[in-house]
């Protein structure tokens, strides 16, 4: 972005989106790509532009997700599932716990809101490997918005939803109801801010929460009713490895508890 031409990045983003809608194409068709920020580790091998990514040889090593996902090929995996985590800190916690060694899986993080390469890469893996996909986010409106971005796509890029959304994504947690279920102390809770409440109310208006995943809506309503939020890291009050040893494995076993997770 040249500062003498464009005052803000959002101006550029809107212009590119308008061009994509006008030409009925995607950003990568225009060769408009950003520096990738997503990370992947676990039981996975693939080639990208002749470069080999061998995550299997070291399942706890993080690899940057390629920007040119259309050049990814020869995908090989013996994983049982794909786990998306919202934040790099949680991703690193799982790496330190050697989570992928004990659990034959692939772990991906978009480091917050996922960029386009991360979403396209996830969709490619699901299409090629046909694996279950679980998503772990903070118990707050921003985490929930990130979850829905993976599964339903973003409002800003609705024109690209067909190649970016991953309807197979299942919500693993963190749920508002987990606070009492896992006996977390009160100091782990934070009050919802006015902005949090406004954002939650906006999320509740989205049509897919009523039609496709009403059980997700119930959890979001519970968050608003209780007026509190908490982060994934709250489970570390039990033990540092509680997330890897207890929470995630138990949640995967119970994932069918929420009918909205069913595809």
TrEMBL record:
Identification of the protein by name: DNA topoisomerase (ATP-hydrolyzing)
Keyword annotations from UniProtKB, A to Z: DNA-binding, Isomerase, Magnesium, Metal-binding, Nucleus, Topoisomerase
Catalytic activity, EC: 5.6.2.2
Record-linked Gene3D superfamilies: 3.40.1360.10, Winged helix-like DNA-binding domain superfamily/Winged helix DNA-binding domain
Cellular compartment(s): Nucleus
Main location: nucleus
GO biological process assignments: meiotic DNA double-strand break formation; meiotic DNA double-strand break processing; reciprocal meiotic recombination
Spo11/DNA topoisomerase VI subunit A N-terminal domain residues: 2-32
Top-level taxon: Eukaryota
InterPro entries registered for this protein in UniProt: Meiotic_Spo11 (IPR013048), Spo11/TopoVI_A (IPR002815), Spo11/TopoVI_A_N (IPR013049), Spo11/TopoVI_A_sf (IPR036078), TOPRIM_Topo6A/Spo11 (IPR034136), WH-like_DNA-bd_sf (IPR036388)
Names of required cofactors: Mg(2+)
Family per similarity comment: Belongs to the TOP6A family.
GO cellular component: nuclear chromosome
GO molecular function, one term: DNA binding
Catalysed reactions, semicolon-separated: ATP-dependent breakage, passage and rejoining of double-stranded DNA
Species annotation: Salix koriyanagi
Domain Topoisomerase 6 subunit A/Spo11 TOPRIM residues, every copy: 81-252
Group of enzyme by EC: isomerase
């Amino acid at each position: 972005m040249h500062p003498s031409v464009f005052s803000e990045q959002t101006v550029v983003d809107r212009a590119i989106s308008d061009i994509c809608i006008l030409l009925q194409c995607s950003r990568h068709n225009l060769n408009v790509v950003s520096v990738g920020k997503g990370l992947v580790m676990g039981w996975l091998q693939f080639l990208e532009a002749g470069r080999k990514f061998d995550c299997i040889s070291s399942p706890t090593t993080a690899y940057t997700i390629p920007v040119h996902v259309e050049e990814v090929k020869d995908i090989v995996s013996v994983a049982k599932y794909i786990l998306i985590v919202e934040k790099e800190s949680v991703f690193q916690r799982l790496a330190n716990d050697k989570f992928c060694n004990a659990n034959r899986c692939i772990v991906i993080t978009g480091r917050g809101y996922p960029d386009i390469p991360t979403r396209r890469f996830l969709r490619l893996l699901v299409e090629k490997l046909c694996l279950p996909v679980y998503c772990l986010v903070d118990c707050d409106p921003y985490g929930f918005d990130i979850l829905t971005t993976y599964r339903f796509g973003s409002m800003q890029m609705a024109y690209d939803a067909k190649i970016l959304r991953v309807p197979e994504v299942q919500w693993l947690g963190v749920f508002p109801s987990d606070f009492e279920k896992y006996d977390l102390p009160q100091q782990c809770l934070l009050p919802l801010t006015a902005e949090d409440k406004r954002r939650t109310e906006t999320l509740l208006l989205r049509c897919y929460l009523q039609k496709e995943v009403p059980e997700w809506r119930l959890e979001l309503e519970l968050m608003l009713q209780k007026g509190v939020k908490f982060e994934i890291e709250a489970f570390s009050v039990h033990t540092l490895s509680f997330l890897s040893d207890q929470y995630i494995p138990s949640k995967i076993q119970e994932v069918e508890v929420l009918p909205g997770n069913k595809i």
